[in-house]
Structure formats: C-alpha cells, structure tokens
From TrEMBL:
<feature type="transmembrane region" description="Helical">
    <location>
        <begin position="214"/>
        <end position="237"/>
    </location>
</feature>
<feature type="transmembrane region" description="Helical">
    <location>
        <begin position="283"/>
        <end position="300"/>
    </location>
</feature>
<feature type="transmembrane region" description="Helical">
    <location>
        <begin position="82"/>
        <end position="100"/>
    </location>
</feature>
<feature type="transmembrane region" description="Helical">
    <location>
        <begin position="50"/>
        <end position="70"/>
    </location>
</feature>
<protein>
    <submittedName>
        <fullName>MFS transporter</fullName>
    </submittedName>
</protein>
<dbReference type="InterPro" id="IPR020846">
    <property type="entry name" value="MFS_dom"/>
</dbReference>
<keyword id="KW-1133">Transmembrane helix</keyword>
<dbReference type="InterPro" id="IPR036259">
    <property type="entry name" value="MFS_trans_sf"/>
</dbReference>
<dbReference type="Pfam" id="PF07690">
    <property type="entry name" value="MFS_1"/>
</dbReference>
<dbReference type="InterPro" id="IPR011701">
    <property type="entry name" value="MFS"/>
</dbReference>
<feature type="transmembrane region" description="Helical">
    <location>
        <begin position="306"/>
        <end position="329"/>
    </location>
</feature>
<keyword id="KW-0472">Membrane</keyword>
<feature type="transmembrane region" description="Helical">
    <location>
        <begin position="138"/>
        <end position="156"/>
    </location>
</feature>
<keyword id="KW-0813">Transport</keyword>
<feature type="transmembrane region" description="Helical">
    <location>
        <begin position="249"/>
        <end position="271"/>
    </location>
</feature>
<comment type="similarity">
    <text>Belongs to the major facilitator superfamily.</text>
</comment>
<feature type="domain" description="Major facilitator superfamily (MFS) profile">
    <location>
        <begin position="13"/>
        <end position="393"/>
    </location>
</feature>
C-alpha cells in the first residue's frame, strides 16, 4: 500500500494522531481524579459519581459501530475531525452542568462523540501510512493515549483541590480544545480511502454477525470486557479510598497513583517481544494471573503494598490488553473493521458496567472491591484456559482458519491489523 512515508506529510500524520490520542483519552478519563469531589459537591454516592466515567464509556461503546458505518461512506479523516470537534464542544459544556443528571447526560453525549475517534484513528493509520512505518505511527498514537489519559487526571486533581471540580474540568476541556484544533489542522487529507463496494447497513450487519459467530473472537471480546472493567474500577475507587482513613491523603497527592499508567508504555513494548518468543497465549495467561495478584496486594492498609499492587496490576493489564487487542485482526476472517469495532464495544461496555458496579462493592469496603476485581480477572483467565483445554469441544464445527489463531499463535508482528485502546 502506498501511503504517507517519512517526509513532511508523514510527520504531520504523527503529530495529528498523537494529538487525537491525547485529546480523546484526556476527555474520557479525567473525571476519575474528580470522583470524590463530585460525590461531595453533588451529594451522590461513589458509584453514582463514577457514572461520569461509565456514562461516557457506554456512550462510546454504543456509538462505535455507527461511526464506522459513517466513515465507510464519507471517509476516515473528515468523520474523525467531526467527532473530535463535537466531543470538545460537549466537553466545554460539562463544567457548567446545573445538576448531576445533566452532567451525566452531557458525559454520555460526549462519549458518543468520542466513539468516532479511537477506531477511526487506527483505521486511518492503516490505510494512509506506509506499512514500513505503520508500527512507529501506531506507537505514536498509543503513546498519545497514555499521556492524554494521564495528563487529564493529573491536571484535573490539583485544580480541583485548589478551587473545585468544575474548575478542574474546565481547564482540561480548554486544553483538549487546543489539542483538537492541532489535530484538525495537521491531519492530511486521505489518499487511499476507497468507499467499500458494500458500505450500507447490510454489510455492517454481515460483519457483526460473522464476528459474533466466531468462538475465538468471543474469547477475545470477553478479555476486553472483563479486564478493562477491572482496570477502570480499580482507578475509579482507589483514589477515593486513599482520601479516607487510615491514609487521609490530599486529592493532589492521590492523583499520583495515575502515574502507574506510564508502565503501560513500557509493558506494551516488552509484551511484543515476549509474545514473539513464547506466543500470545502464554503471555496473555501470565498477564491475567499477575493482574489478580496485584489486585490482592492492594488489600492491606499499608501504602507501600497498595502502591506496589497497583503498579503490578496496571503493568499486567496493559500487557494483557496489548495481546488481546492485537489478536482481533488476525482472528477475524471477514469484516475486520466490524470485528475491531466490536472489540471496542465490549472494551468500553466492560469499562461502563464493571466500573459502575465496583462502587457497590466499595460501599462494603476495599477488601470487597479488591476481591471483586480479582474474581473478574480470574474469570478472564478461565475463559482462555477453557478455550485451550476444551478446544475440540469449542471449535468442533468451526473451520480451521477460524480456530487457528487461538490454537497456534502467529508471531506478534504478523497481525493484519491492530487496534489498541487504553
């Protein structure tokens, strides 16, 4: 495929996609640092305050397939820009929400707008960047998502501590508006977009149906739902816990826990090398088991153990997610765009549902929360083990080309396409 190579146009793609990643994930996750402040100011429970995250992610999950259909008709670049601008406009309205109900409604709508950015950014990359440079370009986008999610939380928390949560939200919204403007101005026009021969609803339904009938993909979707849900629930409520006895940390200090997310930039690269050497399946299993161990380490009321457990949990999560998300493309036999979009749907559905349910466990104490997260992660682990141990039963009537990706792992770099979400 001819695409943007290492010239001025290629550098524009890198900067634009980096800005898209930062803007998208700063908007999506900054309220995690504000959950305790929102709970106090609006007099709602921790689970209700966490709806500022879950509302946005459920909106994203519901919208992602629709955005992929629109992009098939009108092109990746223009639709990506529209989605980005809409998300920023809604984000600027969030700090002025007059009630909790309006706040959640705006976050749901913002999530719907954000549904047009993660999958389309990677689809644009796959179509427009020369294959020799695609991995480097994807790495730039992924780094942008990590830094954006981290920056949004680290900026919102101290501003909230000094003024209030609305000021923290407004500062993040203003900064993401600048990032969106940069992305819109820099993103080059598409050179290689071709409208699919069948770009209507029929092709969308066919691609979705094929993906949902593929047992191997269902296992990967389970990983997305369960592991992402556990990851978001951990970060939704751990800061809340650290502001309470026996820790009694200030909001600006508890925001430091989000620095653990930087481990994802390291573990994703290491995971690629490990998977190339040992195969995807063993690395995915070890990562899930390590996540469970990290969650258990956060139970004691001793700050060093809590922080160590969080770091282990986060590092292992990004490793598991890198494997699962990169496995979707090679596993899909038809409708790759719909297969990756469904991964995104399950990914954010888990974020929404499990992230919200974690609040009810938190009402019983952190031990209940950590136990819930450990059980969820071990369920994901069991899904993979069951697939491997019972593959004849699971794949009995499935063609070899569908079953093969979960039975014989390809080298990690051999994926046809890759979708990574943070």
């Amino acid at each position: 495929m001819r695409g943007h190579t290492r010239n001025g146009s290629y550098r524009r793609v890198l900067f634009a996609l980096g800005a898209v990643g930062m803007t998208t994930f700063a908007q999506l996750y900054y309220p995690q640092a504000l959950i305790p402040a929102i709970s106090r100011d609006l007099d709602v429970t921790a689970a209700d305050a966490a709806l500022t995250i879950s509302g946005a992610t459920v909106g994203l999950a519901l919208a992602v397939l629709g955005w992929s259909w629109v992009a098939d008709r009108f092109g990746r670049g223009p639709v990506l820009k529209v989605a980005l601008i809409a998300s920023v406009v809604l984000g600027l309205l969030v700090p002025f929400a007059p009630s909790f109900e309006v706040l959640i409604g705006l976050r749901v709508l913002q999530g719907v707008a954000l549904g047009g950015t993660p999958a389309l950014a990677l689809t644009y990359l796959a179509e427009e960047v020369d294959r020799r440079d695609a991995m480097a370009a994807a790495g730039t986008y992924i780094s942008g998502t990590v830094l954006g999610g981290l920056a949004g939380r680290l900026i919102a928390a101290p501003v909230s501590g000094l003024i209030d949560w609305r000021a923290g939200a407004l500062v993040v919204a203003a900064l993401t508006a600048l990032g969106a403007l940069l992305a819109v101005l820099l993103l080059p026009a598409a050179r290689n977009f071709r409208r699919p021969a069948r770009s209507g609803r029929g092709s969308l339904r066919a691609g979705v149906a094929a993906s949902l009938k593929n047992p191997a993909l269902l296992v990967l979707y389970a990983q997305a739902f369960l592991l992402m849900g556990a990851h978001v629930a951990m970060y939704n409520y751990l800061g809340y816990r650290l502001e309470q006895p026996p820790f009694d940390l200030a909001p600006a200090v508890t925001a430091v826990i989000f620095l653990a997310g930087l481990s994802g930039a390291v573990s994703a690269r290491v995971t690629g090398r490990l998977a190339s050497r040992y195969g995807r399946r063993p690395v995915l299993l070890w990562s899930s088991a390590t996540m469970a161990a990290g969650a258990a380490l956060t139970i004691p009321d001793w700050l060093p153990t809590v922080l160590l457990g969080l770091l282990i949990f986060t590092t292992a999560y990004f490793s598991a997610h890198t494997i699962a998300s990169g496995w979707v493309g090679p596993t899909a036999t038809t409708g790759t765009a719909q297969a990756t979009s469904l991964y995104t749907l399950f990914y954010y559905a888990g974020s929404s549902l499990v992230g919200w349910l974690g609040g009810f466990a938190f009402d019983l104490g952190w031990t209940a929360t950590a136990t819930m997260l450990t059980a969820i992660v071990l369920t994901a682990f069991a899904c993979v083990c069951m697939t491997l141990l019972g593959r004849r039963r699971l794949f009995g009537a499935v063609p070899t080309e569908i079953a093969a990706p979960l039975v014989r792992a390809r080298p990690y770099g051999a994926t046809r396409s890759q979708a990574v979400h943070l």
